[in-house]
Specification:
This protein folds into two domains: 8-178, no CATH class; 183-270, Alpha Horseshoe (Serine Threonine Protein Phosphatase 5, Tetratricopeptide repeat). Helix content is 56%, strand content 6%. The protein is built from 13 helices and six strands. The protein has helices at residues 8-13, 21-30, 39-52, 61-75, 93-99, 104-117, 156-162, 164-167, 183-200, 204-217, 222-234, 238-251, 255-270, and strands spanning 79-80, 101-102, 122-124, 133-135, 143-146, 152-153. The longest helix has 18 residues, at 183-200. It is globular, with a radius of gyration of 19 Å.
């Protein structure tokens, strides 16, 4: 059952497997909709969960994927927004639930959260440019579906097509292209979509707020801290940038990246 009883600071303190993706994303979205009644959105998530109960006997990944597609796409009309793909509302879960349209990442987290409530194993994948849903045990043959395209199964050929720009026309997708994301990484990717769109539209203050949310819910995400520091420097808040880089140093173990952070901190101190 949907419970909106945690703020984003609390989400940042939870163990990763305690995070319920759709409710966490809804809490993030609520920050941009002051005074909105959140109960109808919880009710919709509960309704979807109730409909999936009709498929409780689905045991194979294929049957579970088919059930998710039938409920989300055929019954509730969820689909990717191909016409206005870059619109910020496609990564805003309240608007995604209003419109039944969204980005691959926002739709995938809905599928994954619903599947897990059924006791099914599901993850959002770290696929470049197009998040998918992976159903079944991690040590089994991956079974992939694409919520952006109505929950359709993803063949090897389709996956290669999606990855064309990443691996080239003759490339072969590898395990790294469909690796499961942690819950925090899913939320960070959702926020990154919003932040990058805000920057492209010339609104660094909005992007800054989104990166601040990212490091609250995913404090171990080094990229979030780096982007936050970059924008803080752009907005001439040197003290805040120094604090962000120092926080990044605490969570980064890569020697080259640590050297970059240290040199950046030194440059800030002498500027």
């Amino acid at each position: 059952m949907c419970r909106m009883d945690a703020d984003i600071e609390t989400i940042g303190l939870l163990d990763d497997d305690e995070i319920e993706l759709d409710q966490a994303a809804l809490a993030l979205s609520e920050l941009d909709h002051e005074g909105i009644e959140i109960e109808p959105y919880c009710a919709l998530l509960d309704e979807i969960a109730d409909r999936l109960e009709d498929y409780a006997e689905a045991e194979t990944p294929e049957a579970q994927g088919e059930a998710l597609a039938k409920v989300f796409h055929e019954e509730f009309g969820f689909v990717g927004d191909a016409d206005s793909y870059d619109a910020p509302l496609n990564a805003d879960l309240i608007r995604v639930l209003d419109r039944r349209q969204g980005l691959p990442v926002s739709l995938s987290l809905l599928y994954v959260a619903a599947a897990r409530r059924m006791g099914w194993t599901a993850h959002a994948t770290n696929t470049p440019g197009h998040v998918l849903v992976r159903i079944g045990d991690e040590d089994a043959e991956p079974y992939l579906i694409d919520p952006f395209h109505g929950g359709t199964p993803v063949s090897d050929h389709r996956l290669a097509t999606l990855l064309h720009d990443t691996i080239g026309p003759d490339g072969v997708p590898g395990p790294e292209h469909i690796a499961p994301m942690t819950n925090r990484d899913v939320l960070a990717r959702l926020l990154l979509n919003q932040a990058s769109r805000a920057e492209r539209s010339g609104d660094p203050v909005r992007a800054l707020a989104l990166y601040e949310r990212m490091v609250l819910v995913a404090p171990g995400n080094a990229d979030g801290w780096w982007e936050l520091a970059r924008l803080q420097l752009q907005l001439r808040d040197v003290a805040a940038a120094r604090a962000s880089l120092s926080a990044m140093l605490e969570v980064t173990r890569d020697p080259a990246r640590r050297e970059l952070i240290t040199s950046t901190l030194q440059a800030i101190s002498t500027s």
